[in-house]
Amino acid sequence: MRWSSHLVQLCLCAGVTLAPFAVQAAEDDPWESINRPIFTFNDTVDTYALKPLAQGYQAVTPQFLEDGIHNMFRNIGDVGNLANDLLQAKPRAAGVDTARLLMNTTLGLAGFFDVGTKMGLQRNDEDFGQTLGYWGVGSGPYVMLPLLGPSTLRDAPSKYVDSYTEPYRYMHDVPARNTTMGVDIIDTRASLLSAEKLINGDKYTFIRNAYLQNREFKVKDGKVEDDF
């Protein structure tokens, strides 16, 4: 149920007008007749299962503990950031993420405290889909994945590659693995509750347009001309 994680990307579009981008986004969504029902399914699962769990988690978890847990999962995510920094031949970003991992894992007590950010080491956000885009692979049509949410023909299979930088496939204790994954998902959803306020108009269209625009922004490292 990671589809909601893409709401965090909408935060980056909060100050950006999506209207000029809408025409291009619609052209990139030739499978809308299939994507919309999948989106409705995802939204229903979130509304009646994931969101209530996230609200309950946020209500009973002290803020310092919630922040610490969130930091720990972000620290795990820095492994994937580092791997894709290297695949994109970005030595400076790789150096920053290496330093973050070392500082946060040791001084930050396994990432519970984000020491790296306080030291001026800003976190990068990279994945294998961005790596493919960096090397010239086009995004392809927009795809709505069951439970996983918005993606593209390029980004969808890239999620499998990224899974090798996550700890779950290496955890052989099934209950421990499932519990950790569950907490990760609920923590992510809880951190995005306030982001829902950014959504206006048709929810499907807003998320699609914001996702595609943000992915282009990330692949091009912010060097995107506003020519839509």
From TrEMBL:
GO terms for cellular component: membrane. It comes from the Bacteria. Keywords: Lipoprotein, Signal. Pfam families: MlaA. The keyword Signal applies. One of its GO terms (biological process) is intermembrane phospholipid transfer. Belongs to the MlaA family. This is VacJ family lipoprotein. The lineage of its organism: Bacteria, Pseudomonadati, Pseudomonadota, Gammaproteobacteria, Pseudomonadales.
